[in-house]
Amino acid sequence: MLLRWVLVIPVRVILRPRVRGLENIPARGPFIIAANHLSFFDSVFISLLAPRRVYFIGKQGWLTMPGRKGRLQARFFRAVGMISVDSTSGSGTMAALDTSLRVLREGHAVGVHVEGTRSPDGRLYKGNTGTAWVALRSGVPVVPCGLIGTERVHPAGSKRLYVERFDVRFGAPLDFSDQRGREDDRRARRAVTDRITEAIARLSGQEYVAVYAETVKKRIAAERARESTSTP
């Protein structure tokens, strides 16, 4: 916990983020923060700048790397509230959802990136329905969060951080408690996901694309592979 507060100081002083809508964060009780995804450090920034501790679900590999560097990295991610889950399989994804429910039942906040992966081009892509599943199962409010400019702080593929200001905007909580228990209804999950994504788009100002970001990334990778094989 102490390390978390130590990390807040350089982020606020050096990067000088503009944070709006803190009054929309519930003072007590469980809730979900649902955000867009532009940079590797998005979950870190949200966790450090939110007034309450936020637990983000992260890849297991970030906490299990060997050596001194791996131990320091694991300590850093745990300090900012990351929960390690193996999401490479269906059972791993279900474990992530179950972990989210457990954290919420304990009265804490859970953070998620609804697109599931970073945007390949700065636009907002179709949301995965896992967030809606947790919201409908738990009945907790969802606070939409729009991030702007975090990709300039840490561009994709970069090994360093740049001193660039960015915005974090928290919107009014979305209440889906009247639909609690409908998490197995595919249409209900999609409708809730789309409402969350629309709220994020209003906060971030991003253009919305009704395609999964992961699909676009695979398409881009395939095109690059074809180009590399066709180059003499």
C-alpha geometry: globular
Based on secondary structure, the structural category is alpha/beta
How many structural domains does the protein architecture include? 1
The overall pLDDT, averaged over residues, is 89
Q: Radius of gyration from the CA trace?
A: 18 Å
Q: Which percent range fits the helix content?
A: 40-55%
Strand content: 15-25%
Q: Number of helical runs? A: 8
Number of strands: 9
Structure notes:
There is one protein chain. With 232 residues, the protein is of the alpha/beta class. The chain has one domain (27-230). Helices cover 44% and strands 16% of the residues. The chain has helices at residues 2-15, 42-49, 67-79, 90-105, 130-138, 150-153, 186-204, 213-230; strands at 18-20, 31-35, 54-59, 82-85, 109-113, 124-125, 142-148, 167-170, 208-209. A 7-stranded mixed beta sheet has the order 1-8-7-2-5-3-4, sandwiched between helices. A two-stranded parallel ribbon has the order 6-9. Helix 5 (130-138) crosses helix 7 (186-204). The longest helix has 19 residues, at 186-204. The N and C termini lie far apart (55 Å). 36% of the residues are buried. The mean pLDDT is 89.
